[in-house]
Amino acid sequence: MSELKEITSVSDWEQHVSTLPSSTLLIVSFHAPWAAPCKQMENVLQTLAAEYPVTQPLSTSWVKINAEELSDISEAYNVTAVPFLVLIRNGEVLETVSGSSAARVRNAIERHASKTAAAGTASNGPAAGIDNNGGEVATEEDPEKKKQELFKRLGELVKAAPVMLFMKGTPSEPKCGFSRQMVGILRDNSVKYGFFNILADDEVRQGLKEFADWPTYPQLWVEGELVGGLDIVKEELENNADFLKPYSVKTNGDTAAAAS
């Protein structure tokens, strides 16, 4: 049976990829050790991997990567939050899955795990949130069902870390002044936080506005609850200087705890 292997260096990653047959489905799980959903996802993937025998040539390969420690690899695959799954065959990204939904992960892997599925029209590129059950190709999806699935994903994202920042760009390259100021506040308070670049996912960008009933970005979430935008965070700190203290860490450099 297959097992989930830890990739610990860029050279380890390059060597692993170079040895895979072109037909092998490479399942890559990006994670962060501090994020509880990542631990859940690891259990899911270990269980799924055990369902796939080791074949010759290798049909599937299962690896996990610390998104923070190997940020070069994370950036290459546009990892903006964890857990984040990337399915690759012969160097081509077939599909990505953000979040800890076991059903979405299983469906995505099953869609691409065989040569037959890989050759079908349903597997040409990302599935864009469409779940195909039992091999059926869904050409249209019920809007209400799609919304429910999106909201479930958003509910997982806002809890991906105790402090989550949904921003334009990344902490190292903010794409708007408000996001830059919010990052500055978090760094000044030594807050360990996760982030999501909403410019990289329009579905999240538009959906979170409705989910949060908050129309602008950046948005700061603490323990799965919306605090608000920049003005609200500044006001909270003015009223209570220790507002962010429970999430403060004494570290040097960038304290952002999400894939950057």
From TrEMBL:
Provide the organism lineage as a comma list.
Eukaryota, Fungi, Dikarya, Ascomycota, Pezizomycotina
Q: What is this protein called?
A: Thioredoxin domain-containing protein
Low complexity biased stretches? 117-129
Look up keyword Iron and say if it applies.
yes
Tell me the GO molecular function terms: 2 iron, 2 sulfur cluster binding; disulfide oxidoreductase activity; metal ion binding
SUPFAM superfamilies per UniProt: Thioredoxin-like (SSF52833)
What are the alphabetically sorted keywords of the record? Iron, Iron-sulfur, Metal-binding
Provide the residue span(s) of the region labelled Disordered: 115-146
Looking at the UniProt entry, the stretches that span the membrane are none
Q: Which Pfam family is one of those matched by this entry?
A: Glutaredoxin
Q: Give the Thioredoxin domain ranges.
A: 1-114
Q: For this entry, list what GO says about its biological process.
A: intracellular iron ion homeostasis
Function according to Swiss-Prot or TrEMBL? Monothiol glutaredoxin involved in the biogenesis of iron-sulfur clusters. Binds one iron-sulfur cluster per dimer. The iron-sulfur cluster is bound between subunits, and is complexed by a bound glutathione and a cysteine residue from each subunit.
**Keyword Metal-binding set for record:** yes
This protein's GO cellular component annotations are:
cytosol; nucleus
